[in-house]
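Blackboard transcription, Thursday session:
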Amino acid sequence: MTDTMLIYKVILCVLVFAVSLGAAAYMTWGERKLAAWLQDRVGPNRAGPLGLLQPIADGIKMIFKEEMIPTHSNRWLFILGPSFFMLCACMTGVVIPWGAGWQMGDTLFPMQVTDINIGLLYLLSVVSIGVYGVMIGGWASNNKFALLGALRASSQMISYEVAMGLALIALVMMTGTLSLKEIVAQQDAGFANVVYQPLGFIIFLICAFAETNRAPFDLPECESELVGGYHTEYSSMKLGFYLFAEYINMFISSAIMASLYFGGYNFPFQHELGLDGNLLTAVQTAVFFGKIFLFIFLFMWVRWTLPRFRYDQLMNLGWKVLLPLAIANIIITGFVMLFTGKLG
Amino acid sequence: MLFGADLLNLTRFKHVYEFMSNTSHLWDYFPIVIMALIALGFVVTTMVLTHALGPKRHVKVKEEAFECGIESKGNARTPFSIKYFLVAILFVLFDVEVIFMYPWAVNFKELGVFGLWEMFTFMGLMIVGLVYIIRKGALNWD
Amino acid sequence: MLTEYAFWLLSFIAVFSGIATIISKNPVYSVLYLILTFFSIAGHYFLMNAQFLAAVHIIVYAGAIMVLFLYVIMMLNLNQLEVEKRSNILKMLAVASAGLLLVILSGAAHTADALHVNPNKVSPAGMVEDLGIALYRNYLLPFELASILFLAAMVGAVYLSKKNLNETQA
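(Written on the board underneath:)
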């Protein structure tokens, strides 16, 4: 790797990180405004015009709050839980293709931090180890409610990971590659993958809701049950990390769904516009962010519309409904590809 | 037993595999390390900042475990239901199944009809296991 | 150059966290050090161009099996290790047998022919595509037998927990 490419990658890393954090911060504002609109009230409008400085005010408030570490709890594990959760949330942004490449001189600069050829497996592995942040945080609190909440949250997350992996298998059968850049590039030629894999998309969407602990699957952290779930004992920035990492997970899940199933940065008739290379890339990136915000709107809309699942309904859905459906999806995809002659 | 280099000659995509396989992809993973370092730096800085900037008023009652105001009795580490443990075991088994299916799905078009049937045999046995588990009621009332 | 530094760093982390797994008194710390060991071994897999194996190692070992271990530790009251007093004879016997194993292993490693692995030659067998072709064309029978093994594991898990499930449901 040449030096310019290395410096470019470092800058791109910092940029992706900053965009994830900024998007997550303003998603808190967006959520409160959307909730207010759905509930026929105004939402935050004091901090700055339209309440736009509210996330910054919240961040500063959280930094200045008191850090309480409960007695009889394990001090280092208590700090490690939310830190690890935040770390895992930030690591997924490296493989998402944020746009096509752009030319400067004769080098092509990609808009994906790294294009590893096992991109989908990397995403699955980061999701798999994200469970530890919740478990360690809940256990280290030395609180019965927190432990029960952590146990339930981690059981929920691992149950839906299987269905998520299986839904992606049907997609990989069609694309023949695990690299996210290839999957997005293949959707330029035909239709977006959601047309070929509607059931897979629905399964993946439901699993994304469950993995981000987002309503209607937010039983582990709601206030009416289990006090606060696994973040009962947390205060100040550690609590801030748990909540913030949840929003980053939501943002990244939206980006992944947009890339895998909705064509990523491609949009219809993009080549007929006759735009110049770099300008086309810029428009594609803007369209990609538009798709991401549509999915985020969907996440928030569902949260404020649907009631929450009971725990046994949640586990039933994960193991007895989604898992057989995902397996059926694979079998159907296999047979359809066999009979339309795409095999061999 | 055939090893990797011999297998390359058996596939129709030989030229693709030769290009992809014989180059080292190690530098692809370096930006991941960079991102990890950036995220770690941010997390550590924020943690140190909050510890330094927040007030510290140690009151004994404030630092006990929170149970809606009721005094907590006993240790938090009491044994819990075995259903969670069973869910974790089943997760391991199905996760390994999903992992086995990934190389098959990537090579789905090359492996043809025979590959389809061999994977359906594998999946059939896993489905038998799943049906057995559901019928035995191991996944109820979780 | 850089791969050498990476190799030494990963090996150091692996050995250090392996030793820390054994000697730490808190079981949750042991599990966390073991997870760190798994990550460093996965790093070694990346250095050998076995990317699929590295990702699978993290997903299955560090992501699934260690979660299982953590559940056990959280569910049992293992927040502090209670080591009962063992007799001195038993400790001496343990040291003697471990030392014997060390002597045998080092003797075997000394007299065996070392595999001449060329670190500069990139092996193609680690990529997902090649691995898939090898697994599903040449190693089909072990693969199908593995599925029977999974079935046996599922039946065993359900059977072992069935007694407790019946007790809680009654």
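Lecturer's comment: Chain B has five helices and no strands.
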